[in-house]
Design goal:
The chain has 373 residues and is an alpha+beta fold. 34% of the residues lie in helices and 17% in strands. It has two domains: 47-187, no CATH class; 214-368, Rieske [2Fe-2S] iron-sulphur domain (Rieske Iron-sulfur Protein), CATH 2.102.10.10. The chain has a six-stranded antiparallel sheet, with no helix packed on it. A four-stranded antiparallel sheet has the order 10-11-12-13, with no helix packed on it. A two-stranded antiparallel sheet has the order 1-2. A hairpin with a 5-residue loop joins strand 14 and strand 15 (340-342). Helix 2 (20-30) packs across helix 6 (139-156), helix 3 (47-75) runs parallel beside helix 7 and helix 5 (96-121) runs antiparallel to helix 7.
């Protein structure tokens, strides 16, 4: 044995024969800590002990249930409401985002409360007085540290009993992992090329319904005529169908350029315009912010989020900022009543996403309006 401050330390052989409780108390003494009271909070198996266990376990069970609810809402809920743009179905669908936010937050909150309750109600009851010391820990301190930690678990009864608590902790931990992985392995991993032409990643509300072309309307549903825009003006328009003004991927900028503006047409998009009227997606191809600031002299339209600029005089190609793709152009014409309609849906995917990696470096050709491509 040797002296360690005012405490006589045992030899290595004596350390190997000491119990966890003895090592724990020795470690406390070597740290200058006097354990005035130390031990389990309740008599094992007593009514108070079982009440404390159930009190802690309920939080972990609530965390597990919240995680399971998050998984159900995230995966199952949207399935029957993908095309819900009006009526009661739209109201139900509007609850989707709040519900996944509430259940995700509840899972993390209940798990955190459970950990705090575990520390307050089931960790060993301890009253200690510690004298501060200076210097690094030596070998005997490191030897006793593991014993102190494992003995705490033993005193809590986590090793040999408290099956309900251990089970609820496993469920809660699994739920926290689940709500972390689902957005990555579920909603964020989706094959965009599957069912191209019908997938919601490719189709917007501008797609003709049963052969009927969709009108361009104001936010209140009023259809738009050519006379509604002055030369050099911009108007934000929406699909003239139920819920069109609320569809996140369907907002469009309708431009009326001036007759003397020199305009180039992107290859493959001849005839998408109607006279001096051009329609482009309002959704920035960088991160999806709404593009809206138009400078009629230069023909540039600006996204206020990250300052990407697109040249409307040249097929809405990006000319400044982080955006790598032009704004998709909506083909338009007039119907029999003189209102603007979309002749078809966009021929490109709207906004940012999977297509950035496959088309981000592509070069888009163009030619002056009226010439052949």
């Amino acid at each position: 044995m040797s002296a360690h401050g005012d405490v006589v330390t045992p030899s290595d052989d004596e350390l190997n024969t000491m119990s966890k409780e003895q090592l724990t108390r020795l470690g406390a003494e070597l740290d200058g800590v006097e354990l005035v009271e130390y031990g389990e909070r309740y008599v094992p198996g007593s009514p108070a002990d079982r009440r404390a266990e159930r009190s802690v376990a309920k939080w972990f069970l609530l965390a597990a249930l919240s995680g399971a609810a998050f998984a159900v809402f995230f995966i199952v809920w949207p399935a029957g409401y993908q095309d819900a743009y009006s009526g009661s179905k739209q109201t139900v669908y509007a609850l989707y985002t709040p519900l996944i936010g509430i259940t995700l937050g509840a899972c993390i909150l209940f798990f955190g409360i459970g950990v705090v309750a575990l520390a307050k109600k089931l960790t060993p009851h301890e009253v200690a007085v510690q004298q501060r010391h200076i210097g690094m820990s030596d070998e005997v301190d490191r030897s006793t540290l593991g014993a102190e930690i494992t003995d705490t678990g033993t005193k809590m009864g986590l090793v040999k009993r408290r099956g309900v608590l251990k089970g609820s902790m496993v469920l809660a931990g699994g739920a926290v992992g689940l709500v972390t992985l689902i957005p990555v392995l579920g909603g964020l991993i989706k094959n965009p090329w599957e069912k191209r032409g019908n997938s919601d990643l490719w189709v917007t509300l501008w797609k003709p319904v049963n052969g009927k072309k969709v009108r361009l309307t104001q936010v209140d549903g009023t259809p738009v005529r050519p006379s509604d825009l002055a030369a050099g003006a911009l108007a934000t328009v929406f699909p003239g169908v139920a819920g069109g003004a609320k569809a996140s991927d369907s907002a469009v900028m309708l431009f009326r350029l001036r007759p003397n503006d020199q305009v180039k047409i992107r290859d493959g998009q001849d005839g998408f315009e109607y006279g001096d009227y051009y329609a482009y997606s309002k959704i920035c191809t960088h991160v999806g912010c709404p593009v809206s600031l138009f400078e009629q002299q230069t023909g540039r339209v600006l996204c206020p989020c990250h300052q990407s600029q697109f040249d409307v005089f040249d097929g809405a190609k990006p000319v400044f900022g982080p955006a790598a793709r032009p704004l998709p152009q909506l083909p338009i014409e007039l119907d029999a009543e003189g209102y603007f309609v979309a002749t078809s849906d966009f021929i490109e995917a709207v906004g940012p996403g999977f297509w950035e990696s496959t088309q981000g470096s592509r070069k888009w050709g163009s030619h002056p309006k009226g010439s052949s491509s």
